[in-house]
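user: can you give me the structure for this one chain? tokens are fine.
assistant: on it. calling the predictor now.
[tool input]
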Amino acid sequence: MIEIKIGMNEKEQRIDRFLMKMMKNDTRSNIFKYLRKKIIKVNGKKVKENYFLQEDDIINIYLPEEFFNKMSEVKKDEIIDKYHLDIVYEDEDLLIVNKPVGLLTHPDKNEYKKTLSSYVNVYLSDYASRTFKPASIQRLDKNTSGLIIFAKNYDTLKRMNELMRKREIKKYYLTVVEGSMEGLKEVKGYIVKDERSNRSTLYKNPVKESKQVHTIFRVLKTNEKYSLLEVELLTGRSHQIRASLEAIGHPIVGDKKYGGKSLKDVERYLLHAYKVEFEGKEYVKESKEIQMFIEKEIY
């Protein structure tokens, strides 16, 4: 018999979902059969698939150890090499990383291994369990750089997600846009993303499948050609900042998808998530590329 003790990172999960993550090479129907036929028990008793695990629960698995290990093993193609992370802050619960341009936050259909989440999970392998991996609280587009928060354990993940739902994690970006702007501008509207073109459009009024957006832009520096803005996201929709700036006639420098001009010395659009604030603390990481551009173009 195999025994697994539930810790803080595994608690409050449904037993069927826990088992499907742990025995990921097995099938859902087999997992249900093991529970139904008491091949897998909790604290020596039969439980239904919707039982929520508690800390210190003991899962009893009456399967051959060789078979269990085969169903639970990590395949070689899932293992990646270590990657240098630009770590801005780390403690026992949190990791805050500066994501570079060109790197996905999470795997997608085209890229599974070379993503920030994958590299973080290698770095934090000591914090992972069979069914919990350190997880990001938010994400950034592939070509947007900046700060991403990772929770190292389940309790922290719950706490941070609750802060996010309550909008108690404040997110600020720096961007350089075309044209002269002054003061503070608040943009509200409704956004729709076309998945085929991977492009979002902002509307003044609700339309089918639209989501409400709210963004604040504060001008930090400006001249007749460009403006440096601090952006505060009050909602978090896909391409919200880029679509909002296009809608008000000030596209981001280098953002050709959203109306920006192509510049010889700008290889990316100039948008960087530079600051996050929560629980009375702030974490900051400036963008060298944006700093170099404003030193050259905005006096």
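assistant: here you go. The domain at 76-165 is CATH 3.30.2350.10 (Pseudouridine synthase). The two ends are 71 Å apart (CA to CA).
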